[in-house]
Amino acid sequence: MKLGIHAYAWCSEWNNNQLDLIDRAKKLGMDFIELPLLVLDKFDAKAVRERLTALDLDACTSTVLLDDTDITSSNSDIRAKGVDYLKKCVKATSDIGATNFSGVIYSKHVRQLENRPGEREYTWSADCLREVADYANDLGITVGLEPVNRYETFLVNTCEQALMLKDMINRDNIKIHLDTYHMNIEEKSFYEATKMAGDKLMHYHLCENDRGIPGTGLVNWDDIFKALAEIKYTGYAALESFVDCTDNMDTWVWRQLAKDGDTLVTEGTAFIRSMMKKYNL
Question: Cα–Cα–Cα angle for 63, 66, 71, nearest 5°?
C-alpha cells in the first residue's frame, strides 16, 4: 500500500507558493502527495512535475464539482462545462506524470434536492463520466468515484452506490475511492464496505471521524486494515485532514483539529504505519 498525504493538511489552496509541500511530504517519508485541482488556473503542472521528478515522489489528484460544473444539472450547458472541467483535470493529472484522479466528480459538492435523486440524475452523471473516462483512458488515467456523506452529496453516499454508478458508466478505468470520514456516517461496516470495493478500489482516504489525527477518535481502524489486507490492497491511501476553511470548497473546519499541520501529519502517519505493520501492508 502506498501511503501519502493530501496537501490540504497544510494549505487551503494549491498554487506555486505551496510547491515546498512536495519537499515536506518527501522528508516525512510519504510515497506520494495528493494535489487538489479545484483552482486549475493556479495549478502549474510543469512546475509540479519538475519538483516531483527532482524528489522522486509520486502524486495523485482530486477535485469536486461546483455550481457551474455540475454534471447532474438539468442545464445541458452546465453538464457540458462539467465534462470539459473534468477533462482538464485529467489532462493536468497526466501532465504532472500521475495516473490517478478522483473525488466528488459525479455531481455538485453540497447540493440539495427537494426529493431523492432518480434515474435522471444518475443517467446524466453516468453519461458525462463515460465521456471523461474515455478521454482519461487515452491518457492512461484511472478515474475514481468517492462516496461522501449525505450532507455533501445526494447521489453517491456508499460504496454500493459508487459501484452501481461505475456499472452504469461501464468503463474499466472507473474505480472506487473510499474515505473513512464519510464511511463513518454512511456505511454499516468499514470492513464490509472495503471488502465490497475489492479489486475496484484505487484510493483510500484515511481520516478520523472528526477529521483530526487518525487513531484519536471513533473510526474502527482494525476493521479497515483487516479488510485491506484481505483484498491485498497495494494502491494509494492518503491522510486527508483539513487545517483551515477554503474559498474554493466547503471544509467546515471551525476549530483547531491538531496543534498544526505537521503534528497532524507526523502523529497520524505514525499511527497508520503501525497499522500497516500490524496487518503486513
Answer: 90
| CB-based contact 196:163 (threshold 8 Å) | yes
Gap between the Cα atoms of 171 and 207, Å rounded: 29
Domain count, the chain: 1
pLDDT in tens, 224-239: 999 999 999 999 999 9
Given a cut of 70, whether residue 243 has pLDDT beyond it is no
Which of 153, 151, 168, 160 lies closest to 105 in space, CA to CA?
Answer: 153
Q: Estimate to the nearest angstrom the gap between the alpha carbon of 53 and the chain centroid.
A: 22
Query: How many Å apart are CA 165 and CA 179, to the nearest integer?
Result: 17
pTM confidence score: 0.94
- Residue pair 249/243 in contact (Cβ under 8 Å)? The answer is no
146, 152, 186, 208: the active-site residue: 146
We report the CATH number of the domain holding residue 110 as: 3.20.20.150
- Tell me how crowded residue 80 is: count the other CB atoms within 10 A of its CB: 15
Q: What is the DSSP letter of 18?
A: G
Please tell me which residue in 34, 187, 208, 240 is annotated as part of the active site: 240
Q: Which residues pair with 33 in a beta bridge?
A: 5, 59
Give the separation between CA 23 and CA 37, rounded to whole angstroms: 19
Give residue 257's domain range.
2-278
Per-residue pLDDT tens over the stretch 110-149: 888 888 888 999 999 999 999 999 999 999 999 999 999 9
Contacts of 144 (CB under 8 A, 6+ apart): 100, 101, 102, 103, 174, 175, 176, 177, 202, 203
**Cβ–Cβ < 8 Å for 224, 191:** yes
Give the cell for residue 111. Answer: 447540493
The answer to whether 240 is a known catalytic residue is: yes
208 is catalytic: no
pLDDT digits 0-9 by tens, 22-47: 999 999 999 999 999 999 999 999 99
